[in-house]
């Protein structure tokens, strides 16, 4: 998989936006970059996380109750810490600030609960083509996906819903990478579509149905060449 950025991004949907903005900006101390309007009454508030982007999404309409994703937490590397500092955001989403390099996390770590470790081992290694330094650890640039436990994970019908919802891989060619994932046995979440001159995006799904956004973003590539 040809990356346009050496960092995974991660997205959540907030029930109320102001407490979330205060939490991530003031308590966690992340730099707020900008807000995007996604259409349909949705906004995306973007925070920098060691080169990754935390996408705090909010909808003016109440969120439909849906199955939680298999993403159960984040690890954010922070220089100067002696030990992990666990916390939860205003909606109860779990995260930990960890010393830089703790269990290999130097930027962002995304924690997963999975139904079957072997299925994820195949998916992240073979379908997504991520390196794996050890079982249950998958590397995308300087970000890590960490399978921390097996347990019941239901299949969400939509990437829109409260809590951790999806991760984003920034790539150089959305159409090619989307087709490649499907050819290697991945499942489609949403076909590629062009967002004006901003990006071409699609969604694929892991063995438990978690949504993975494939994003070809003009700001990272100096423009869009895909029709």
Describe this structure in words.
Strands 2-3-4-1-12-15-14-13 form an 8-stranded mixed beta sheet. A 7-stranded mixed beta sheet has the order 6-7-5-8-11-10-9, with helices on one face. The protein has a single domain, classed as 2,3-Dihydroxybiphenyl 1,2-Dioxygenase, domain 1. With 227 residues, the chain is an alpha+beta fold. Helices cover 16% and strands 45% of the residues. It contains 4 helices and 15 strands.
Describe the structure concisely.
The protein has 227 residues and is of the alpha+beta class. The chain is 16% helix and 45% strand.
Itemize the secondary structure elements and their pairings:
Blueprint: E1 9-13, H1 17-27, E2 31-39, E3 42-49, E4 52-59, E5 71-78, E6 85-88, E7 94-99, E8 108-114, H2 117-127, E9 131-134, E10 137-140, E11 143-150, E12 163-170, H3 174-183, E13 187-195, E14 199-205, E15 211-217, H4 218-221
Parallel strand pairs: 1-4, 5-7, 8-11, 12-15
Antiparallel strand pairs: 1-12, 2-3, 3-4, 5-8, 6-7, 9-10, 10-11, 13-14, 14-15
Question: Key terms for this structure?
Answer:
alpha+beta, single chain, seven-stranded mixed beta sheet, 227 residues, 15 strands, 4 helices, 2,3-Dihydroxybiphenyl 1,2-Dioxygenase, domain 1
Number of helical segments?
4
Query: How many domain regions?
Result: 1
Class from helix and strand fractions: alpha+beta
| Global morphology | globular
Record field, number of beta strands = 15
Q: Uncertain runs with pLDDT below 50, 5 residues or more?
A: none
Rg (C-alpha, Å): 17 Å
The mean pLDDT is 93
Task: Walk across the major sheet and give the strand order.
Answer: 2-3-4-1-12-15-14-13
Helix and strand pattern: EHEEEEEEEHEEEEHEEEH
CATH fold-level assignment: 2,3-Dihydroxybiphenyl 1,2-Dioxygenase, domain 1
The portion of residues assigned to helices is 10-25%
CATH superfamily label: 2,3-Dihydroxybiphenyl 1,2-Dioxygenase, domain 1
The name of the CATH architecture is Roll
CATH class: Alpha Beta
